[in-house]
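Holo prediction — 2'-deoxycytidine-5'-monophosphate.
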Amino acid sequence: MDPAFDPLQIAIDGPAGSGKSTVAARLAHELGMVHVDTGAMYRALTLVARREGIGVDDAAALSRRLLEIEMEFVEGRIHLDGEDVSEAIRSNGVTSQVSQVSAHEQVRRAMVVRQRRMCRAARQGAVIEGRDIGSVVLPLSRCKIYLDAAVEERARRRLLQQGEPVDADRLERMREEIARRDRLDTEREHSPLVIAPDAHVIDSTALTLDEVVQRCVEHARAAVPAPVSHKEIHAWRFTMRSYQAAVWLLRLVFFRPFGMRVYGLANQAADRNFLFACNHISHFDPPVAGSVFRRELYFLAKAELFGGFFGRLIRHFRAIPIRRGRWDEQAMSAAVEALRSGASLMFFPEGTRKPAGRPGPAKRGLGILWEESGVPMIPVYVRGTDRLRRCLLRRERLEVWVGPPLRLHALEVLQKTMTAQQIHRRIGDLWLACIEELAERSEQEGGERG
Ligand code: DC
């Protein structure tokens, strides 16, 4: 099993009272998948803290304890060290303290590791719901849903759910309580509630539960990648013989002597052309990452490289010169044009090389290319290109990880409340989260291989 190619993981985010839990439970049941309720996990940790007298502001003690306890979902109920605590975690005491527990960065980091592990272990697929799933926990998910509803409607649903009468007074109080939680969730410093740029936004204000579930099922079905044949992945799609020969030669060098491995290649064959967005640690990234795809790619390369023979050479191999240190409209337009015309482009969103292990942040160019071209973006992670000599001696691994294609589904919704600059920053954040997750998988895979 290719570790870059997951069973379907449906990521559902949304504010308090948007109906996530009900929808996620129904969806998991209908599709035969595991349901992971991340809110319940933060609640369970809060319950442990209350029982054991751990302060909810003691991030170190909370995250230490989190590493020791067992959490498991059994038929939609949460078990804590074997005890079913599904009711206990809904007490007023827990509810009033859980947002303090979930605000600690250290706690969230440990929780995310757990949540990813749970999802990966679910071979039949998982429906996972929370506040930061599409943006932080599973940035590589192929199916992200952001459930929303008007505050008034969410207040009404909460009252009904709690079995209280829906009168004007209660409604107003609940509305205020929910608006307060929205502020806490969206303004918190670490992993705030955000709409992932590639999420399908569903406003459920005027929809029935069945209708919402139905839409989610449709998105989930569309997200299951069509089976790609070995032949299709390995077909050579070149119009330039010289380009094909160059790729062939590079592959010969990198695969054999340097032991290059490629993961997730089946992610890129389903559609026609892509914006490949790769991390950048060495001058060798373009030939290494470029050689894994058996197709021509456009590149952007700094204008200084375009003098003399080398300049003519890279121009021949589809490099577009870009002047750095300022906005180069001409280069970006040429790149967008190439993508729109059906070509693929390999792009390095960080702009300049970064030390290995510390990727990012992405510059605005990525957001602009993705938005203006409308072409799916595939995050690509390379490792080892900065230590080729060690790769030759097999002391380091030369690897390329290809993520799934991400589409900019939420653009119109985001444009209603955000500036272009803010949207591009969010796109950059998503890309970075994807690269970090691919890097984590590479570490794990290396550990398992020994
Ligand atoms: O959805 P809920 O009410 O069970 O969530 C409980 C708390 O946990 C709430 O304060 C938000 C927080 N939470 C979070 O910060 N991140 C998640 N992924 C899920 C929940």
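READOUT: The pocket of 2'-deoxycytidine-5'-monophosphate is lined by residues 16, 38-40, 42-43, 98-99, 102, 130-132, 185 (CB under 6 Å).
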